[in-house]
Amino acid sequence: MKRKIITTSDGSKTIHIEDWNEQYHSIHGAVQEAYHVFIKSGLTLFKDRSISILEIGFGTGLNALVTCVEAINLGLKVDYIGVEAYPVSLEEIEQLNYIEQLKANSFEDDFRKMHAMAWEESLPITDCFQLHKQCKDFMEIQDVDRFDLVYFDAFGARVQPELWTQDIFSIMYKALKTNGILVTYAAKGSVRRAMQAVNFSVERLPGPPGKREMLRATKL
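^ thats the sequence. predicted structure below, dont judge the formating
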C-alpha cells in the first residue's frame, strides 16, 4: 500500500496510508495523542515501581519513546513488549521528528536503538526501560496474567474491524494482571461492548485533541 510521511497539527510527523486514508497517529497531533491516551490516561497511574507494558501496534515507536522518557519522571522500571505484524522501515523512521518535537535530544540514540535492535530479542534501552519487540499477529499473543498496562494502538475499526472484536479483547483480558489497565484512543460503542463482553470494567474519558472521548478498561 502507498505510504507517505505527513505532518500532524502539533508539528509531529506520522505515516499516512493512502489506500486506507488512515494514519499511524492522529492528524490532530501525533505526540499530543500519545501523551494524552497512553501517558496521562495510563502510565501516570503507576509510580515508583516495576511494571510490564504490552503495546498493540509498535508502529513508529512513538509510544515506546514517550514511555521511556516518562519512566524516569515517574520512578518506573519498565519491561515493554511491543507487538507489530508489519514493521515500519528504517527509512520511514529516519523521516520522523519525535526527538525534536519532544525536545529529548538525550534520547536520540535510545530511539535509534529501539528500531535497530533485532525482533524477538530483549534489550535494555536505558537503566529503567527494557524493550522486547515481537513481530507477529495480535491473535498469536498467549501471555496470561503478565501485564500491568496495555497500550491498544491498532489501526481503527473502520479499516481493520477484526482488531476490535470480542476475541481480541479476550486475549487482552487474559494477558493483563488483576487490576491491570488497557487504554486506547477508540471510543466506539461496539468497541466498548466488546470489552464489557469479556468482563472488562470500561470507562469513557475525555479524548485527545480531535476526539471527544477515549476508553480505559480495567481487569477487576
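The mean pLDDT is 97.
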